[in-house]
Amino acid sequence: MPENKAPLKPTDTELEILQILWQNGPSTVRLVNEEQNKTKETGYTTTLKLLQIMFEKNLVTRDEESRSHLYQAAVTEEETQQSLLNRFLDTTFRGSAMKLVMQALGNRKTSPEELDQIRHLLKKLEDESSASDS
Amino acid sequence: MPENKAPLKPTDTELEILQILWQNGPSTVRLVNEEQNKTKETGYTTTLKLLQIMFEKNLVTRDEESRSHLYQAAVTEEETQQSLLNRFLDTTFRGSAMKLVMQALGNRKTSPEELDQIRHLLKKLEDESSASDS
DNA sequence: AAGTTTGTACGAAAAAAGTCGTAGTAAATA
DNA sequence: TATTTACTACGACTTTTTTCGTACAAACTT
């Protein structure tokens, strides 16, 4: 059981780095930096410093065995998404998940397969709620 | 037709203020400040300055007729939500609207009525997409 | 009319986030 | 072994965002 007190609020850059770590697994500073540079030129020490800060915040762990440390996300993508989603929902959609969903679906082209998946989820949610009504 | 070039990225505090303006319509600095204070103690001139900055950024307009100016949101809630949603989707969910929707629905209790509304939307989306396939 | 209250304007401090240079050391290589 | 390369540590500078103090003016109050 993680003992993560704080509501988990990575900054924009921290989130970018987390994405890289989630996608690549344990990575050296250099690798993270190279990934970052695909999007936006970033100095090596900048990346290093960020990772060090994230380490202090317990957003990442690191393996110091070899000379170039291996950094790894200490939070899962799902829990981070959930946390950010809740915050976003409150600040931007005044807490209305419905409205967010409607806009997300409405203004983006969603494939029929995806729509179908959502339909399944809806059914499941409905079943669950009626089951708990007993 | 608005000539809004920038992708519309209000900061957190700016968004709070926009929310207040959307809910209350044209408002004086004082009113905005009082609303803010319900959540978080904020000095009067702090609010004033923010509104002035937002005015320069064209996030709000103002009526200077009477001594206490009336500020009004210059962007709609919907377009702002849409813009922030797109950004959020990209940075946090790597662009997958589906995943966001699933998490939004899954981890929050959504009422049967709301689920039903979404179901209607799904149907509409489906109809539209098959219609445009002609 | 003098004084108090309620405004705006605006510079500048404080806080938060991101960037980078320099020092020092281990490892590779010439 | 001397040199160059690849790392970490860390302080400090920059930029962005937020907060606030002070100055000054209009409009009420007495």
TrEMBL record, chains A, B:
Transcription regulation recorded as keyword: yes
Coiled coil: none
BP GO annotations: negative regulation of DNA-templated transcription
Pfam families registered for this protein in UniProt: Penicillinase_R
Keywords carried by this UniProt record: DNA-binding, Transcription, Transcription regulation
GO molecular function, one term: DNA binding
InterPro entries (alphabetical): BlaI_family (IPR005650), WH-like_DNA-bd_sf (IPR036388), WH_DNA-bd_sf (IPR036390)
Recorded family membership: Belongs to the BlaI transcriptional regulatory family.
Record's protein name: Putative transcriptional regulator
Species of provenance: Rufibacter quisquiliarum
Lineage: Bacteria, Pseudomonadati, Bacteroidota, Cytophagia, Cytophagales
